[in-house]
């Protein structure tokens, strides 16, 4: 395989995840504006709740999408599944930018919005795991970790790009223009990025690894095999993905709001620190993937990071309560350094865990159940813990417990980072 062809394949896997997380970030950041446009009413809080409800609807479709796209990927191939999943994300994103508002179309507007978000949620259930599986299967044996890391790098880049685009529109345009037509621009721009992704994926070669094992496979359901023949692997993947999801959402998504509400730090400052840390994370993720390929065995590397989180999680949060900007910066950087390890190395580990015949079904379902369902509830559970215990650092206990669970799960996950892919 030529270097140019390999770079195209990596870019195709990377940019699909950029589109996925760009769209979800833009929707989240523009929620207040969308609430007024699609769910107008005297109660602004109720309108915002309805808007976030639509956002949640996308996540509810995620487990269903994981089953559908996992089965497709193990049946018709990874590259075709990647094309379908990104198309199902791109077209609705573009259409969202063209939607009529409630004042233009009445009840039809929010109904169309719900349909669009549900279609996108379905595609999200298959995008990440499909692209990771393809990237890892088509990579040389000593570069699987680095190859798989580009999917998470794309996700983080998409989040940053979505935040930047939303900030650009809302800061450079007056409020009236944003509500009239400016809100459409980020979604239309997402459609343009997505078109590039579709073009890159149209002619991707099929995974030879998939093709070889697919021709030899028995006529059984790959999704069924994931829960019968390979139920141990699926269970371990669900447990680790659940802990991994919580450990991702706490420092990346929830921490800025926690700093604002519990220490009184201005929200804009907390977000600036978070943005800086997230930008550094972009660099650390592929570095982690490379280290897992060449210097440290993947499961050992991730287990070490989980142990560090378990030991330092509580002291770091205690330091944060000191209301020091220096503490906020240092703690955020330390947390993202630890979490960069699984973000960079775990994608390849998940792929190596499952046999080729039902790899995408097992990985996709386990990952989305863990990260999407358990990880996605992290802000809610963290807030509930503070309310129930009356202790502002209660989320640190949640972090420590999940780090320990991840560490224990890794003790039972075989390390295949130096073996030929099954």
From TrEMBL:
PROSITE patterns: MFS, SUGAR_TRANSPORT_2
Entry annotated with the keyword Cell wall biogenesis/degradation: no
Chief site of localization: membrane
Cellular localisation: Cell membrane
GO molecular function (one): symporter activity
UniProt membrane topology term: Multi-pass membrane protein
The keyword Isomerase belongs to this UniProt entry's keyword annotation: no
InterPro entries: H+-coupled_symporters (IPR051084), MFS (IPR011701), MFS_dom (IPR020846), MFS_trans_sf (IPR036259), Sugar_transporter_CS (IPR005829)
Sequence similarity: Belongs to the major facilitator superfamily. Metabolite:H+ Symporter (MHS) family (TC 2.A.1.6) family.
Annotated protein name in UniProt: Major facilitator transporter
